[in-house]
Amino acid sequence: MSDMYNNSFEDNLVGEHEHERRRASLLSQIASAIGSIAAFTAFDHDDDEHQSARPGRMLGSKHKKRKRKDMDEYISSMDDKLFQRHYRMSKAAFFKLLDIIGDHLPNTGEGKQTRGGPPNGPVTKEARLSMALRYCAGGDPLDISSVHGVATNYILDNLWDVVDAIHKSPELKIDFPETHEEQIQISEGFRRKSAVDINNCVGAIDGILIWMHRPTLSDVKVLKFGALNFFCGRKLKYGLNMMAVCDSRGRFTWVEARFPGAASDYYAYDDSHLRKKIEEEGFLRPGLCLFGDNAYVNSPVMATPWRNVSKGPKDAFNFFHSQLRINIECAFGMLVHRWGVLRKPIACNITVKRTASLVYALCKLHNYCIAQSDIGIEQPLDKDVLNITTDGGLFLPRIDKSGDAYWQYDMDIVGSRDRLGDLLDGGQHMDDHSRESRRKYRFDTGLPYKRMLDSFVKKHYHRPEIKNIRSRKASR
Predict the structure, then answer these.
(1) How many helices (H) and strands (E) does the chain have?
(2) 201, β-bridge pairs
(3) What value does the mean pLDDT take over residues 231-244?
């Protein structure tokens, strides 16, 4: 795979225009790297809370005196709206999450002070969850450490403890529905959202770029292929290609983030565990399929739009197909808007493996928030927006300005500003696979999209006229 991706990059990055685009991207990434490095410079000079907890601290070693935050008092001082701006979920959801993962968090000395323990006292599990959520919301580690009374380098150490606790909690597990009854239930959810009662969608699939810095040499040695494989030529960013499937409510039913940013969506899906599973005979209920865009290929388990059409039944099919497929873009929108850390490059001192683990944990929290009815997302804190954009991250007009504070994804607006154009569609290319590999089912007349088209022709469906209310108001 390494040679294949390296060759594609050499072809993509030729020409003066491409050189200028790369130069602009490089300047942005340099600024982002400087911001990330500055935020963590104190790591080598500040006390390490984990080291302080080890028995046998060096004789004569010094520590900074810090006052731990009284979390009960701190949380009770916030109203519900302010709390959600801080933690991206409601107070009730926060404390329920703490109950779910609390037993999986390592003890930091709660209950009694022991010799060799943290000199400033234990860090409560409530504070540990608070710090992790603030970091994922896009908070500045220096600010988080100051508020909670801990060393700056403890923020990331604690983050991985919380991420591990999330992965150890079976209540938060993400599983593609394996029984036909569960699959029918999901397809019924999509049918209720369809204007023409499409009832064969078992999930909407797409890929998103998880933005990160260029992998380090140590990462490259572990992964055994070059750093350039992580460079997405379409978005001019390093990252991972995360594939996901969601249901009609935007809950992820499958997530896989093991392919570099240069990989196409088709390649990532074709080599995924999901494809192997749903193509097993009898696994998927007959008639059901995934809905994807043209990065994928029509098959017995996948329906994609017709190409190069602008009217007639095929155009109607594309419209009503998109009405369901767009749910995965909505899910990605909610994920990135809720967790601001995904709107900027993942810090350069975080490995690729840990990046994937962090993103998978955030997908689980995304599902958890929807299950707790936390669907709308409050406007982020101004200081978080500043931290994100200072690190070279994305500024999202509708949520980063005060005009639309309680945010929900605009899926019905043509040309919506909510669409994450900087992170979506990076895998829509054929650089890592052949045209022939996409034509396996070209002449199969029994494919889902062909059966659906026949139904559209018989029922005389056509694309309805869409009025962009938001754009119309803006033009007045």
Answers:
(1) 19, 6
(2) 289
(3) 94
Rounded distance between C-alpha atoms, residue 361 and residue 356, angstroms: 9
Q: How many residues does the chain have?
A: 476
- CB 343, CB 237: distance < 8 Å: no
Distance CA 431, CA 4 (A): 8
Structure tokens at 103: 């037993």
SS3 call for 60: coil
CB atoms within 10 A of CB 139: 24
For 219, the token pair is: 């990462």
Measured distance CA(265)–CA(365) in Å, rounded: 24
Structure tokens that stand for 244 in this block = 């996901």
pTM metric for this prediction: 0.82
**Among 317, 97, 306, 278, which Cα is nearest to 177's?**
278
pLDDT score of 468: 45
Query: Tens digits of per-residue pLDDT, 85-95?
Result: 999 999 999 99
Q: What is the DSSP letter of 347?
A: P
Angle, alpha carbons 357-130-113 (nearest 5°): 105
CA–CA separation, 20 and 38 (whole Å):
27
Q: What is the DSSP letter of 299?
A: B
Give the distance between the most distant pair of CA atoms in the chain. 85
Which residues, in sequence order, are bridge partners of residue 291? 204, 303
Residues 6+ apart with CB under 8 A from 181: none
> DSSP states of 103-125 as a string?
GGSPP-STTS--TTS-TT-PPPH
Q: How is 151-213 classified by DSSP, letter by letter?
A: -TTHHHHHHHHHHHHHHT-GGG------SHHHHHHHHHHHHHH-TT----EEEEEEEEEEEEP
pLDDT, tens only, 278-299: 999 999 999 999 999 999 999 9
User: Pick from 145, 94, 102: which is nearest to 125 by CA?
Assistant: 102
Do the beta carbons of residue 217 and residue 341 sit within 8 Å? Answer: no
Chain centroid to CA 328: how far? 11
Tokens of 119: 């000199």
* Whether 325 contacts 411, CB under 8 Å: no
Amino acid at site 52: S
Tokens read off for 374:
């936390």
φ/ψ region of 140 (left if φ > 0, alpha if ψ in -120 to 50, else beta) reads beta
β-partners of residue 254 are: 245
